[in-house]
Amino acid sequence: MTAAAVWAAVCAGVAVCLTAGRDGGLQRARLLACGGVAPEGPRWASSAHWRRLLGRGRREWLCLPAGALLAVWGESVLPLLAGAVAVPLTARRLRACERRRAAAGRAAAVVALCGGIVGELRAGGQPGQALLAVGRATGALGAAEAAVLSAARFGGDVPAELRRASHEPGAEGLAGLAACWLVAVDSGAGLATAVDRLEAVLRSEWEQQDCVRVQLAGAWSTVVVLALLPVIGLALGWALGADPLRILLHSPAGLGCLVVGGLLEAVGLFWATRIVRAAEQP
């Protein structure tokens, strides 16, 4: 099958999907206007379905159509195999990025939780009531939210539950809140003062980490440019009238250059990423 035939098939499939989705929408609108019940259209033809599919962390599957496109273009199965291998690697990378974003959001939520507790205590509230008032709103407690709030409501061991909740990434500040809570309960010291100091320390650390991330934006741009250099080289080859994919995929010298270049690119990206990640560590 030639590349033109493949492109024609792809375009025809896209047209069918769009037509099916539009016809289903028109049919549902007409039925609703007449007071009927609108049937559900095919799930695969729904744009909302594709948005949910990509929003659930399945963006790594885009490597397969990209590899298939290069396979058709270069008339070789190697790009398709590379796309299949890239799916789990890309998935691992995306999951790590999601975990880092979740940890950063949790750290900010812990700071907000401490500030809210201080406000409630200074307004005259009791410690348990203050935790109940702001614990659910900030989302800092994560999966342990029900256990912590139940302990606060029914007189349970709040410090122990807070320490368990602090084991989640980004929620390490809850261990300090547990220590403040325990000292205040045992010695009768003012909880508001201790949590206020804890909130100041946690906010300072969070702002410092945020400042470091902003300053490392230039380094991440360098990593991105390093990752795009092979694509830029291929584009320059096409602009000069050459056929770089055919040379890389259909000649022994090209295959050797492809393997060596791919290994060097992977090592360079790994090295540059490790350097930037090390600078981001607190």
What's the gist of this structure?
By secondary structure, the protein is an all-alpha fold. 80% of the residues lie in helices and 0% in strands.
Question: What key phrases describe this protein's structure?
Answer:
cell membrane, 12 helices, transmembrane, mainly alpha, 80% helix, Type II secretion system protein GspF domain-containing protein, 282 residues, elongated
Account of the protein in words:
- With 282 residues, this protein is mainly alpha-helical.
- It has a domain at 96-206.
- Helices cover 80% and strands 0% of the residues.
- It is built from 12 helices and no strands.
- The chain starts with a helix and ends with a helix.
- Mean pLDDT is 76; it is low at 1-51.
Strand and helix map with partners:
Layout: H1 3-33, H2 47-55, H3 63-74, H4 78-122, H5 127-138, H6 145-154, H7 158-165, H8 173-187, H9 191-215, H10 217-239, H11 244-249, H12 252-280
- Specify the biggest β-sheet: none
Number of strands: 0
Helix count from the secondary structure assignment: 12
Rg (C-alpha, Å): 28 Å
Distance between the termini: 55 Å
The fraction of residues in strands falls at under 5%
Oligomer: single chain
Roughly what is the average pLDDT, rounded to an integer?
76
The unreliable regions are 1-51
